[in-house]
Specification:
eight-stranded mixed β-sheet; 55% helix; 484 residues; flat; alpha/beta
Length: 484
């Protein structure tokens, strides 16, 4: 997980308060000391940490609390709110509109990951229904155009650039004009960088901005630079109207807290964070969702959004109908696995579930395992796919030969299907009306889940909270207060 060490330290501090038999000034002081140390180790600015601790103390105000109130809950709520405030500049980012040209211009120092981020950003918006186009206006760095071309080709996104033209403003304008004529509604311009903040870099940025008239200029920042991020962001914003920020390389640096907090101080909202080298490794950012993941509370809204994007409404209705009838087949399971594959890396989805934020899959290639299962089912006949029964040994051998997998792998798929088929006997409407799950149905669902998974979620009570959150998110209601 991003900033996993910070998350673990924060959770340890909050857990000590929850487990304390008496929550008093001494307990609060010790927790604030732990939280402060955790933030400092993540490279958050000292002054911001001191102010955060003061704000939490003021919010909690133990001497003034009425008797009977849950002090532990109030303290945890104060920590959550202040962490959100630390990362929230209170300004809204530009939101691209489908059907009209939206020009985004990315700026930043060389090595910050701009060129890679350009493709990731286009891929993210394409999943949202946009038609992106990429423009390489980096004529300074050798190999910039080749890198963008390689990434864009891999992601199957149209691109424009020149290996001979040396004027970045001319290349940018020509590329933007071409994509506008071709009907692309999201045009992303990649600009040159330098190893340090040089005057010629700022002049070039201003020229490109004047030539393309971007709707939003996005500053791309490397998480590893820590508190230096503040000076960088201020320097760039003083020369061009930076509207948003993307922080890259958040997966490999414990010091990313410095970049996160420093950017918030510049009043430019963070819109994405880079969490890996793969094209899908770009996460949308909101202070509330990020802090929820830090505190292992998950982000159900993100999960629901991922499912809705990957699974058409007709498929959702068909699956619901078959579950109501208790008639799930291997074909249904294959469709669900294909949907899961289209949602991106499995570990990213799991980390949005409450209790799973810090889960590490280690060397397990979850997406690769799903792909193997789909390949096995591709070797089955229509009758086998539409059957609700586990395949007999002779058919398992035939499927193993046909798919190029081992008999053990086919048997593993059959075990997974047994679990999938059992879930089909739990009716979707058996969790009760509204958002309160039915205790009997919850117990039934808990009995179908592997015990390690159930323990990771916090037992039956944690499962109930997850079901309740999913119900509310599905209905479009605001999420419940996680501390009340």
């Amino acid at each position: 997980m991003v900033l996993g060490e910070l998350s673990n330290r924060l959770l340890h501090a909050l857990r000590a308060v929850s487990e304390s038999s008496s929550v008093n000034e001494e307990t609060l002081t010790e927790m604030l000391k732990e939280i402060g140390n955790a933030l400092l180790l993540a490279d958050v600015n000292v002054q911001l940490v001191v102010q955060l601790k003061k704000n939490i103390t003021k919010r909690v105000n133990l001497p003034e609390l009425a008797s009977g109130l849950n002090r532990s809950t109030i303290i945890r709520k104060a920590v959550f709110d202040e962490l959100c405030a630390l990362l929230d500049p209170k300004s809204k980012p530009y939101q691209p509109v489908k059907g009209k040209p939206n020009v985004l211009m990315l700026v930043g120092l060389q090595g910050s990951g701009k060129t890679t981020t350009v493709t990731k950003l286009a891929h993210w918006y394409r999943r949202k229904g946009f038609k992106p186009g990429l423009v390489c206006a980096d004529t300074f760095r050798a190999g910039a155009y080749a890198q963008l071309r390689q990434n864009a080709t891999k992601a199957k996104i149209p691109f424009f650039g020149s290996e001979t033209e040396t004027d970045p403003a001319r290349v940018a304008k020509e590329g933007v004009d071409i994509f506008k004529k071709e009907g692309n509604d999201l045009i992303i311009v990649d600009t040159s960088g330098r190893h340090k903040q040089q005057e010629e870099l700022f002049v070039e940025m201003q020229d490109v901005a004047a030539a393309t008239n971007p709707d939003c200029i996005i500053f791309v920042m490397d998480a590893s630079i820590g508190q230096t991020a503040h000076d960088q962001a201020v320097a760039f914003k003083s020369r061009v109207p930076v509207g948003s920020v993307i922080i890259t390389k958040m997966d490999g640096h414990a010091k990313g807290g410095g970049a996160l907090s420093a950017v918030a101080a510049t009043q430019s909202p963070i819109i994405f964070i880079g969490t890996g080298e793969r094209i899908p490794d770009l996460d949308s950012f909101s202070p509330t969702s990020f802090v929820k993941r830090l505190l292992n509370m998950g982000n159900i809204d993100e999960v629901v959004d991922m499912v809705k994007t990957a699974m058409p409404k007709e498929q959702q209705q068909r699956l619901t109908s078959r579950m109501q009838q208790g008639k799930l087949t291997l074909r249904d399971m294959m469709e669900q696995l294909q949907t899961a594959m289209s949602m991106g890396p499995i570990d990213k989805m799991l980390q949005n579930l409450p209790g799973f934020s810090n889960m590490q899959l280690g060397d397990i290639d979850a997406n690769g395992k799903l792909k193997d299962f789909i390949n096995i089912m591709d070797s089955m006949t229509s009758d086998e796919l539409d059957s609700r029964a586990v395949l007999p040994p002779e058919r398992i051998k035939r499927v193993a030969r046909g798919s190029g997998r081992t008999i053990a792998e086919v048997n593993l798929l059959m075990e997974q299907f047994k679990m999938f088929e059992k879930l089909g006997h739990i009716k979707p409407n058996s969790f009760g009306r509204g958002s309160i799950p039915n205790a009997r149905a919850l117990s039934q669902l808990a009995s179908k889940l592997p015990q390690p998974m159930l323990q990771q979620m916090g037992g039956t009570s944690g499962l109930g909270a997850l079901v309740r959150s999913l119900n509310l998110a599905e209905k479009g209601k605001s999420m419940p207060n996680a501390f009340m």
